[in-house]
Amino acid sequence: MSSLQKEQYIELAVCTETCAIRIEEIHEIIKMLSITDIPFSRPEIKGVMNLRGKVVCVMSLRSLLGMPDEPETRATRIIVVRYREEYIGLIVDRVNKVTTYSEIHPPSEGHGHYREAFFQGIGQQGDELVGILKLDEILGG
Question: How far is CA 84 from CA 60, 115, 136, 140, in A?
């Protein structure tokens, strides 16, 4: 068992997809806050929020993954990640659980409909396969 497989992940839902983010990339998970719109910004940028005195850019993970936006629900969360010395909020439909994976496969093993560039691997727990997001690719794209 390598140390990679002992890493913890936050499993989240976007639309009908389940994916995961390495727990060490996450600063915090919060309920939806009021977001101030930024005029003329890219469609995936939903605005900015005030997080304890810090201005944090908030983006829709649905938009970043090429999915249509949906109205928020009581389960909607903002996952605040640290990216290039800044905090960025990612809106997700639901946070499922903290988990580890028994196996991590490279994304190129052809596990179907995942856009390979967005995933650093496919986590496997039993029969369940979950794409592990590559934040550099998603946010830097």
Answer: 18, 23, 9, 10
